[in-house]
Amino acid sequence: MAYLLQGRLPINQDLLLMQKGTMMRKVRSKSWKKLRFFRLQDDGMTVWHARQAGGRAKPSFSISDVDTVREGHESELLRNLAEEFPLEQGFTIVFHGRRSNLDLVANSVQEAQTWMQGLQLLVGFVTNMDQQERLDQWLSDWFQRGDKNQDGRMSFGEVQRLLHLMNVEMDQEYAFQLFQTADTSQSGTLEGEEFVEFYKSLTQRPEVQELFEKFSSDGQKLTLLEFVDFLQEEQKEGERASDLALELIDRYEPSESGKLRHVLSMDGFLGYLCSKDGDIFNPTCHPLYQDMTQPLNHYYINSSHNTYLVGDQLCGQSSVEGYIRALKRGCRCVEVDIWDGPSGEPIVYHGHTLTSRIPFKDVVAAIGQYAFQTSDYPVILSLENHCSWEQQEIIVRHLTEILGDQLLTTALDGQPPTQLPSPEDLRGKILVKGKKLMLEEEEEEPEAELEAEQEARLDLEAQLESEPQDLSPRSEDKKKKPKAILCPALSALVVYLKAVTFYSFTHSREHYHFYETSSFSETKAKSLIKEAGDEFVQHNAWQLSRVYPSGLRTDSSNYNPQEFWNAGCQMVAMNMQTAGLEMDLCDGLFRQNAGCGYVLKPDFLRDAQSSFHPERPISPFKAQTLIIQVISGQQLPKVDNTKEQSIVDPLVRVEIFGVRPDTTRQETSYVENNGEAVQTGQRRRTWSEARSLTYGDLSRLLIHSVSSPVKC
Fold first, then answer.
1. Which of 62, 142, 180, 567 has its CA 20 to 30 A from that of 627?
2. What is the mean pLDDT of each run of 10 residues along the chain (712 residues)?
3. Distance in angstroms (rounded) separating the CA atoms of residues 329 and 693
4. Does residue 350 carry a catalytic annotation?
């Protein structure tokens, strides 16, 4: 099976040494450091490890899972062990998604360089793979997992085990029949291309063949005109279908003669359907397609809550990795809770809890390095400042010295602004959101009685509305400490995003300015939407709002962000370390517009005179029907916590999220004991065109697989 990819890999000394294997120290913490033998498999695409050379090995990771490789000095953990291990001998493997990083320490600088350079070469190779190469790699990964004795061939017993790993339960006699048909060498085992043919016979889908034959005149191929008909009728590609058909045939037809004749075989057709080009996501929404010159308050902003946490809110780990991951996935508003630290250095952690602590300067350095790797649109630092005057000055020094020109310190044109600047105006800039000392013109506006009333209500309001910090108070913190005075130098760094306490919509209209922003707990925001949703919409049309999860979500769970987007709330902060439906929704919204982290709100949510009420929407538009046909499902991952021999029966659930009348779901039936299939059919749902604007087009449609109870 190794030949599928190995023939295309460059001959490289680093890769040859990696295939011989290396003893390295795997590091999980200051106390957990164990020697392991790591070896790149012959396929060049998977790394296995064992306790010692020649020992029983098991898979460690696939190259396709690797996002990047970092040097030792970039790892928090390895930096903390610098006295024990030279940083030059360490490196970190960073994976896609939420998988924890893998920190390794080699026995020499040369060995570390060999693995770093070799892994980077392989990651680059995988990134540039075409569709066929990705399928080859996927099959190679499964072959490696099924080939239990690692002899490069698979017996029927190993095939049966592999079918369970792939979540497929099949009649043993039928499975043996497919096995014998694929075993053209009659060796009693499957090798290389024989395994590929076995997989093809295993995954044949009559419903896909039926769709193919519907447009193919001979049932063998799609001519250019037939493929254009398919793209227009089924894929709704419109006028661009002719040009697109030529591109897709050239991209997915495996036969060179087919490409020359401009025809698409069944294999090419299936390759197209399973590719990104066959994605339901509207391709016109992939690039930067929205107007980016409107004020900041006219956009939804990808936002994170307690960004430093990579676990729960009480005992979880604080790490700069939280900022790196959030920024790399397009987050544009990160939160920093800053407290007085030892030796005069401010620290970041969830105050009065058992969460670990990290230096503020390390957080700033990570933000400066990763702020604009994914998007060059502005990043907002939401500062929760709990520091003394002296350490506030240290905060200012780190921000200005580390971020340099990236940090916005003055108004763009040097003149008092009349509205918030646009994302386009602020490209490449980092903005500070926080408390600000009152300006002279602001002091003259409130009447004396109102000022006194505000002062009296301040402590109570702070308890109700500020982000909760006293979740698990320690005895030494129970004594009331004097309120810290805001340092003028730190106040001066807040240019456009002054944090203010919310009292009422009337008070905000009469006494606040467009550059002032309020934060709302999810409970408070839900209450306001229910009681005065139209006023909340109007408020968010001219002023920024930030919503954050309830303090009761100590497990770092998330709320449904759609509720707050419906009211036009811009910064709906998520616990990005926690996967689930809620983060799927967030990722879905911000996937569009080049993933830049800013999505323009619908026009009726940008109108300060809007009468739209998210709880009681009224639409003059005729209802429309959305029809989605679920054809088939393949290569569905198995649920992580299921046993090897168990079979889960997946189904597809289609959900629409928006205002309440639009929110609905439909799901397919499931096929008993077949993890590779779902029952097909159409699901219909009618909704209002006007209300659909609250969630946009199909880019906001979430389709995900779920499972019935495990059958063992």
1. 567
2. 50 92 95 96 90 91 94 93 95 93 97 97 89 75 79 87 77 88 92 85 82 94 96 89 95 92 93 86 92 98 97 95 97 98 96 96 97 98 96 98 97 83 98 87 45 41 46 44 80 97 96 96 97 97 97 96 98 96 96 98 96 88 79 69 66 89 87 58 38 30 32 26
3. 25
4. yes
* Ranges assigned E (strand) in 440-488: none
Residue (of 116, 145, 111, 120) closest to 37 by Cα position: 111
The H-or-E segment that residue 269 falls in is: helix 266-273
Which of left, alpha, beta for 344 (phi over 0: left; psi -120 to 50: alpha)? left
Beta bridge partners of 102: 93
Which of 49, 164, 298, 305 does the annotation list as catalytic? Answer: 305
H-run or E-run covering 224: helix 224-233
Strands (E), 58-101: 58-62, 66-71, 90-95
| Of 556, 555, 591, residue with least CA distance to 573 | 556
Please report the sign of the dihedral spanned by the C-alpha atoms of residue 73, residue 79, residue 82, residue 84.
negative
Terminal Cα distance for the chain, rounded: 30
Burial (CB count within 10 angstroms: exposed 0-12, middle 13-18, buried 19+), residue 640: exposed
* Ramachandran quadrant class, 483 (left: phi over 0; alpha: psi -120 to 50; beta: rest): beta
Q: How far apart are CA 563 and CA 542, in angstroms?
A: 19
Residue with tokens 């896609």: 96
Catalytic residue among 49, 164, 298, 350: 350
Q: How far is CA 171 from CA 143, 176, 616, in A?
A: 21, 9, 54
CA distance to 379, 462, 532, 571, per residue, from 521 (Å): 22, 11, 16, 12
Provide the 10 A C-beta neighbour count for residue 658.
22
CA distances to 109, 321, 439, 487, 496 from 491, rounded to whole Å, are: 46, 28, 11, 6, 11
Q: Cα angle at 535 between 532 and 540, to 5 degrees?
A: 125
Q: CA–CA distance from 538 to each of 332, 498, 499, 505, 580 (Å)?
A: 23, 19, 19, 9, 31
* Residue 127, helix vs strand vs coil: helix
CB atoms within 10 A of CB 274: 18
- Is the CB of residue 495 less than 8 Å from the CB of residue 337? no
The predicted-structure confidence for 597-624, as pLDDT tens digits, reads as follows 999 999 999 999 999 999 998 877 777 7
Active site residue 386: no
User: How far, in Å, CA of 676 to CA of 144, rounded?
Assistant: 20
CB atoms inside a 10 Å sphere around CB 691: 22
Burial status of residue 36 (CB atoms within 10 A of its CB: 0-12, 13-18, 19 or more): middle
